[in-house]
Amino acid sequence: MITRIPWQAAVWRPLRQRPGASVLAIIGIALGVALGLAIALINIQAVSDFSAGLRRLSGQADLTLTAPGQGFSEQWYVRLSMARDVAVATPEIRLQAQVLHPARKGMLPILGIDAFQAARMGQPLLPFHLHSPLALLTPDHIALSPAALTNLGLRVGDTLTLDADGQPRTLRIIGELPGVGSSEAFGVMDIAAVQWLWGRIGTLNQVDLRLDPGIPVAHFLARWQGHLPVGAVLQSPAQQGHVAADASRAYRVNLLVLSLVALFTGAFLVYSTLAMGVVRQRQQLALLRVLGLRRREVVLAVLLQGATLGLPGALLGLPLGVLAAWLALAHMGGDLGAGYFRATALHLQWHPGLLLIFFVAGLGAALTGALLPAWETSRAIPALALRAGSEEQAHQQHQHPWVGLLLLGLALAGSLAPAIHGIPYLAYGAVACLLFALLFLLAPLLRALTRLFPLPHAPVWRLALAQLRGAPGRAAQSLAAVVVAFSLVVAMAVMVGSFRDSVANWLTDILRADLYVQAGMNRDSLLPHGAAHQLCALPDVRACSPLRRV
């Protein structure tokens, strides 16, 4: 029973005797929990915010027809709006406009809509407090989202100058868009005005469809899939969100695995702390066993030491993780600056279930780190444990280097295995196998290495090498946590380097030129006649290739 365990002697006093190691173990658990929680919160918030933005912009649409580049003829909107099983069809045109005033404000996404059809679709894209319901139909009127107003430093009633097809156009801000996320910066205009000002008359690049009640989306897709404009895609808004989520999935999974490695490092710190503590307590615990303490109570005492380290570490990691997630979302966005999501800043939302999961994970990591020392201590024979110098004999009896070699083989096989659904699960398992192999291979490796070097003449170095030769097991326990902590640094460097190299290789394959020259921000802008030939004739130009994107 737990009441028989002398708490002070078996649990609390050993930790107080090693305050530095205990504090490091608590910090390790806290950092592991904080990193894992922060990355999980960022991932969930980024994907949910992007999907919510798509749902807000698409309203109650069941399907969306989109096309890159110049889009498609607006006759497709007429065909789809009159098609069987279509209740409402909403045309849209989207483009990026250069902001000329206020100066140096970058690009502003412009969304041209049919206000009447958007209202029928349920899209929250009509501004509040209009003096006239038809105000948005005026060509020089625009409504901005709250984020756009904030970024531009403007208010309702101010004017905004945009580059429209190479010409400066001054627009009046007539209202603020309701129901739009605080991280979404864009403007809404009448679709006819956008087509006229930007030279897009007769073209669209999106049509939202709401089907009649009871019509299966899959049946409508099957009927129209072979009759769409060239390059156009007909899919649901949820599928659009999945595209962005899938594009960033590998990035987010790697970050999450990295956080788990950090938590694993915390578990190793607990293991190292308790393993060394158990070595020092070996005779005390053996004496308690002789006095009547049962084996399972010895295990419980060591596990309580692990819980004593894990509980404050997990509790400290939760607020640190929330703070880190809040700072990252506020300053780097949901993709930590990788560019997968357009939102510049997101607001953190609470997920109590996620907090509970990582609290349990932190406490579980500490208990896992305490499990092996507890098991080894419970197997010790009290009569032998009371003898001086029995610690290393116990280490040698419990060494199983063949298990480490087996784990290395599994790690090699896992690293060569193919990905499953685009995620290298077996490769992540290989990383875990490598880390666990440390437990079984460090002591034999230390013993072999120390035998290779002769004893030096200097007393300090001679004593240190003799200590390593005589007790490689205890040295391996201290070294394991250091090696695992260093592996976290290596993992972070490899992950960052692999992403940088992958993006660089992709850019090299896709963007083969060193410089690109274009006439304007819109795809239909053309270079002056003869400009391409003059550019190709410039000195130091090895090769050039004029092209037109359609």
Automatic annotation (TrEMBL):
Membrane topology according to the record: Multi-pass membrane protein
Main location (coarse class): membrane
One record GO biological process: lipoprotein localization to outer membrane
Record key words, sorted: Cell membrane, Membrane, Transmembrane, Transmembrane helix
Presence of keyword Membrane: yes
Pfam families with a match to the protein in the record: FtsX (PF02687), MacB_PCD (PF12704)
Domain annotation ABC3 transporter permease C-terminal: ranges: 257-379
Domain MacB-like periplasmic core: 22-218
Transmembrane segments: 21-42, 255-279, 300-329, 349-372, 402-420, 426-446, 479-499
UniProt-annotated location(s): Cell membrane
Any one annotated GO CC term: plasma membrane protein complex
Family membership noted in the UniProt record: Belongs to the ABC-4 integral membrane protein family. LolC/E subfamily.
Protein name (Swiss-Prot/TrEMBL): ABC transporter permease
